[in-house]
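Colleagues,

For the teaching module next term, I've prepared a clean inverse folding example: a structure given as tokens, and then the sequence designed for it. I'd like students to try predicting residues themselves before seeing the answer, so please don't circulate the second half yet.
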């Protein structure tokens, strides 16, 4: 998606350790008009009328998923990263290793909001090693629901996640795929997509 690539080129910062910082429009301050264009593009890429729910993970996926949901006319469920008093009843739980925080989380969804008969589109901000997406897929499967696809804002194509998920037959669509990035020069190269 040209608009997103341009924005990453303009405002993204490459940090050591393969981290792309996009705090000014996606991960801290959020450009809602850009999110809206991203939402339209997710709808174009996932036209299936079967999708009845979007699943994401707190925190950074929530804004993107909510704006996208307006084009799907479906609710958003976000997986929680910690137990809270607001979580009651039975839950699906899986473990996810965080790429940015280098620790392992339990992620939790209430059984009330995911179940058999659901056709779920998973949306997240980044795809790196694929742990977050794999964990969300695991939650959907535990619920007996169907994964219709995984929609990602920014995939780092030089990390394993995209290849792993696609090799398992998961439909992964990323709005921008970073082929390489250099924290010395700041150069970011995108994979060309149709
Ligand atoms: P994965 O689980 O695929 O290794 O990593 C995906 C998760 O880690 C995303 O939910 C995202 O929050 C975070 N993440 C991974 N790589 C980056 C990155 O380069 N920049 C930022 N801002 N977040 C990242």
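(Answer key — instructors only)
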């Amino acid at each position: 998606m040209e608009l997103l690539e341009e924005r990453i080129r303009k405002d993204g910062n490459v940090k050591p350790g393969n981290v792309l910082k996009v705090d000014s429009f996606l991960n801290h301050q959020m450009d809602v008009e850009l999110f809206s264009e991203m939402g339209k593009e997710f709808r174009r890429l996932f036209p299936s009328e079967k999708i009845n729910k979007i699943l994401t993970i707190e925190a950074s996926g929530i804004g993107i998923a909510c704006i996208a949901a307006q084009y799907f006319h479906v609710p958003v469920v976000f997986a929680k990263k910690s137990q809270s008093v607001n979580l009651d009843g039975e839950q699906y739980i899986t473990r996810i290793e965080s790429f940015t925080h280098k620790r392992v989380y339990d992620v939790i969804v209430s059984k009330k909001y995911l179940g058999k008969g659901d056709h779920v589109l998973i949306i997240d901000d980044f795809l790196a090693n694929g742990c977050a997406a794999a964990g969300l897929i695991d939650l959907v499967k535990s619920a007996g629901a169907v994964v219709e696809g995984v929609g990602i804002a920014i995939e780092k194509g030089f990390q394993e996640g995209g290849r792993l998920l696609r090799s398992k037959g998961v439909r992964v669509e990323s709005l921008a795929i970073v082929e390489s990035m250099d924290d010395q020069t700041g150069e970011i190269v995108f994979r060309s997509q149709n």
